[in-house]
Amino acid sequence: MKTLCSLLAFLLLPVAVHASEGTKRTKPNILVIVADDLGYGDIGIHGGKTVPTPNIDKLAKSGVRCTSGYVSAPYCSPSRAGLLAGRYQTRFGHEFNPHVGLEGKLGLPLDQRTIANLLRSAGYATGLVGKWHQGFSKDHHPQARGFDDFFGFLVGGHNYALRNDAKPKFGNAMAQNVIHRGREIVQPDGFATDVFTDEAIGFMNRQKENPWFLYLAYNAVHTPLEIDPRLKDRVPSGVTDTARRGYLALLLGLDDAVGRIMTHLQQSGADRDTLLIFISDNGGSGLFPFLAYNTGINFPLRGNKGQTLEGGIRVPFFVAWPGRLPAGKTYDHPVIALDILPTACALAGVKTPANIDGVDLMPHLLGERNEPPHDAIFWRFGPQKAVRKGNWSLVDYRDFEKKTNSGWELYDLANDISQKRNVADANPKVVADLTQAWQRWDTQNIAPLWHGSPTEDPTAPKKK
Fold first, then answer.
1. Is 133 in the active site?
2. Do 258 and 221 meet the contact criterion of CB atoms below 8 Å apart?
């Protein structure tokens, strides 16, 4: 009898393993890594050569590189609000960074369900490590917005050296320079990028038996441009500008962190059960000494953080899933960070809310659907506007030198990715059609619930 039982167990083992793997595949882990103010042209896969970024490049080559990947705002908090809600943040008034106004009203509006809310309802363990920037009150806290675990900071920026900092660089009545574990203030020891990576790996280790969603929101390469002493010798000696050296050191640290995350996934065997998405929250901030200036280079794109030109809104956008998505593929139709929520919901078996603006990207990335995911995508950021439809980009951006807006300009991105040749006069019908499309879209938006301070957000309309 014992021999018979052993034989049956052996014969049934492949079936059990297959069933287990099938269960995992129906609810994969979902890891979203967000860099902060990353220069589009500073990473190797996009032509950057000043410092190597082998791990970010490897991630890009391990899956699908979306060459026209966008975020829904050229600024930190509204971009993240769109990602978390799967909706244009202008639909619910989160147009600017939440720094000016009543604490209880600042942040991702409480009637918006987040990707964490939805995935937790499907049995996912949900975690946030790093930057939140979606409100400071107890009701806006990550653990009130669907996240089981939280380790990081609530505000828009944070020092990197986490101990013995007598002069916090980001501190005001609602933006304290502190690290939280859950709702408690803690005092970790180390450099923020490394500490956040440790915490992310710890979260993944604790959830080996459960499908998990991790939102890993690094503050690198946002200011302050602090240099980890262990990395200073890896910055080329030929780079003499102090700010640029700090930025490059943060980029090296970010690349190392991505490498650690990928190595952990591979060594733990979780990589084939994990959808991994890497983006930046907006373009690099290489324009003048405001807008959290960090020397980021967006070439060949024109423009910077805070502008609706391509350099402010087009970002690195990589989607990897070994064994499921092809490696080394590029996808050229425009996609946007709003698509992350419905993609995750489809994989988790969660009903996607009816009011979202994103779409499930998997059928498109797998080649099951050939049409573009979006007929057009849109932006509104104060007086700035933009719409992309096909290869056309119609944009009204803020010229910070002239302190005025450009008015509508039209660019053919297929032949002019750097937006150097305004072809509006030669294509009046295209301008009229896209203007009308933007206006129809804008009728579904609401007025901003608050305005950023003039020094932080020069695009914000002044209060009357």
1. yes
2. no
